Amino acid sequence: MPNSFQSVQFSLCVFCGSRMGIDADFGQAARNLGEVLARNKWRLVYGAGDVGLMGEVARATQALGGETFGVIPEHLMSLEAGKHDLSHFVITQTMHERKKVMFMNSNAMVILPGGAGTLDEFFEVVTWRHLGLHSKPIYLLNINGYWDVLLTMLDQMIEQGFADSNFCDHISVVNTVTALEQALSDYLARRKPARV
Length: 196
Ligand code: AMP
What we know:
Elements: E1 11-15, H1 24-40, E2 43-46, H2 52-63, E3 68-73, E4 88-92, H3 95-104, E5 108-111, H4 116-130, E6 138-141, H5 148-159, E7 171-174, H6 177-195
Parallel strand pairs: 1-2, 1-5, 2-3, 3-4, 5-6, 6-7
This protein binds adenosine monophosphate.
Residues 17-19, 47, 49, 76, 80, 95, 99, 114-118, 120-121 line the site of adenosine monophosphate.
C-alpha cells in the first residue's frame, strides 16, 4: 500500500514543553526551529498540541509552508488544544502509542526546554538508544543553559556508578537553533552516501 510519507526526506521529532516557560528565548528558539524546518523541507513530528512551545514550533513551521505531523492521545485533545490543521494529524488511544508513532515517523529527535513530559520523552529515546534499539541521533537544545542541571545529573549517574561511561555519547548538545541546523545538515550530508 503506498504511503503518503514516502516523499518526505527527513523528519525531526521535536519534544518540548506544553508551556512557554519564563525565558522569552525559549519561545523564540521554538519559532526559529519551526522556520528552520520549513526552509530545509524537514518535516516536523511532534505532539500535535497548540499550547506552549509545542504550538510555537508548529505555527512557525506552518507559516512558512512546512510539513507537520502531529500525534496526540484522545484524552489530551482539549487540554493540549489538538491542532487539527496539521499536514498529518493522528489521534491515539494512549500516551505510549503517541510516543511510538512519533518515534517511528522520525529520523532524529531534538529536545527543547520543557517539563516532566519532555523529560519522559528524552529519557525514553536516550535509554532505547543506549540499549541499541535504534540509532537515531538525539539533540539536546540547551537554550540559555536550561539543560545544564540535567547534564550534571547524567554526569553524576556515571560518576556514582549507575550508568556506563558512554551513556552520554549519543546525546549531542547544541546551544542554539543555528548550531542545531548545522548539526542536522552535517548529519544528513554524512548519511547520504550510505543510502545510495
Ligand atoms: P511537558 O514537558 O510536561 O510540558 O510535556 C510535554 C509533552 O509531553 C506534552 O505533550 C505532554 O502531554 C507529554 N507528556 C507528559 N507526560 C508524559 C508522559 N508520562 N509520557 C509521554 N508524554 C508525556
